[in-house]
Structure to design on (466 residues):
């Protein structure tokens, strides 16, 4: 098969041997260029997410859009969920270059639409386009790691991709706040346009050699992806309703639509953590939901219980972002021989972090201790994330890399969306009733701990493709 049809460069896909430690396969110039473009695409998404979220309260104030604030957040996630499946399928059918260009252009259009928004509804439209654009980057990147890079360098490539979030997480909020204050919020969007175009130009050329691989395909998964987005959106929205009848009715309708669609998108047996790929996907859902159950609500506790400033609220979870990356680097440099055990250890460390961070619910507890405690949770996430990714992508046979990579990223999206909806519902109930915020956050931490415990059990069935 010619390289245009998808054959990796020399050394790509070569299995590791047990003959003892060997020098790592060097990257070619084209592989280095591709790796740079992929990491920059991750950094683009990270800057876009963190910068826009920082500016969104100001945008809402100026456009009088309080009622659409939550919608602008939810629509991004739901568009992201659908786009990652579309991009994965397009990558298998056409190669990664075409969907990547479509994603970049969609993102740029969304940024321009939001920058020119005269009313909040156009921010919502722009955010939908931005979510659709950025949603395709992850499955395309995972696919390219599998097809373009040597087997012994793939774990490190996954670590590089995750590391792309570190600098934006540290600096994008402050930079976005400064741009908003000095030049106005539209420039938060417009400032990302040159970055997006530059990433597109840099990354697309080395992608062109990886075309579609002949493979028997069974139908399109795109209708199921759209149904999943609608169903999850209805479920998450229903959980926020104050009217119990509307909440129950909308949530049940969302479940009725989402569950069959997600089962169509996932490999059979995910709900029972069947041995192999289904167990890996189940662990990814549990891991992302566990992490979000604490990471999204620790800053809220720092604000409402401890009276911390916005800067300190962000600071208490930065340690987890850094140790997540550290955990991935550890696994990349020392790949585990037993990936099931590695995933179990990651869940156990996250569970320890959740126990250590629980005192955030008491106002007298020092926030520096919260910072250190949740850094333990972030380390656990990093320790399991890389082995789970490597194990999942071992099932990505030629011609199905996009499908499997989209299943992995879909698992992350489902975990984040569901825990976000459940956690948001507990906070909303506390806001409307006499239930304390500490009780709501404590409930979320308890749910996260339960999910981590389930993850330890499910991880026993994690197996890479033999």
């Amino acid at each position: 098969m010619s390289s245009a049809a998808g054959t990796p460069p020399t050394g790509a896909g070569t299995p590791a041997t047990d003959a003892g430690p060997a020098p790592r396969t060097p990257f070619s110039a084209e592989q280095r260029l591709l790796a740079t473009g992929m990491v920059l695409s991750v950094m683009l998404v990270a800057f876009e997410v963190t910068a826009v979220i920082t500016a969104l309260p100001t945008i809402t104030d100026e456009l009088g859009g309080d009622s659409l604030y939550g919608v602008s957040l939810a629509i991004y996630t739901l568009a992201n969920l659908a786009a990652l499946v579309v991009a994965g399928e397009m990558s298998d059918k056409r190669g990664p270059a075409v969907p990547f260009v479509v994603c970049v252009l969609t993102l740029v259009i969304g940024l321009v639409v939001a920058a020119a928004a005269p009313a909040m509804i156009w921010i919502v439209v722009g955010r939908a386009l931005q979510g659709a654009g950025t949603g395709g980057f992850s499955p395309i990147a995972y696919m390219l790691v599998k097809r373009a890079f040597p087997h012994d360098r793939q774990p490190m490539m996954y670590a590089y991709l995750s590391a792309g979030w570190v600098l934006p997480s540290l600096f994008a909020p402050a930079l976005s706040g400064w741009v908003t204050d000095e030049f106005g919020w539209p420039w938060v969007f417009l400032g990302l346009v040159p970055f997006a175009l530059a990433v597109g130009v840099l990354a697309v050329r080395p992608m062109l050699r990886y075309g579609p691989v002949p493979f028997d395909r069974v139908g399109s998964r795109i209708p199921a992806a759209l149904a999943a987005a609608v169903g999850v959106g209805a479920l998450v929205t229903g959980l926020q309703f104050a009217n119990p009848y509307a909440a129950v009715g909308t949530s049940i309708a969302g479940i009725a639509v989402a569950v069959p669609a997600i089962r169509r998108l996932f490999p059979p047996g995910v709900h029972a953590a069947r041995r192999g790929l289904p167990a890996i996907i189940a662990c990814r859902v549990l891991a992302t939901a566990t992490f979000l159950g604490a990471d999204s609500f620790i800053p809220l506790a720092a604000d409402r219980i401890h009276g911390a400033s916005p800067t300190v609220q962000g600071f208490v979870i930065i340690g987890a972002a850094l140790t997540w990356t550290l955990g991935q680097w550890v696994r990349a440099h020392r790949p585990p021989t037993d990936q099931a055990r590695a995933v179990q250890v990651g869940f156990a460390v996250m569970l320890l972090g959740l126990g250590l961070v629980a005192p955030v619910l008491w106002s007298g507890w020092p926030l520096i201790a919260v910072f250190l405690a949740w850094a333990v949770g972030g380390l656990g996430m990093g320790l399991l994330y890389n082995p789970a990714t490597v194990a999942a992508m071992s099932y990505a046979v030629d011609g199905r890399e996009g499908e499997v990579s989209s299943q992995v990223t879909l698992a992350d999206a489902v975990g984040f969306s569901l825990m976000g909806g459940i956690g948001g519902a507990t906070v909303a109930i506390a806001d409307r009733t006499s239930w304390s915020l500490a009780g709501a956050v404590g409930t979320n931490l308890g749910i996260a701990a339960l999910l981590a415990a389930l993850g330890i059990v499910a991880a026993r069935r994690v197996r890479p493709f033999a």
Observations:
- The chain has three domains: 29-212, 215-265, 269-466.
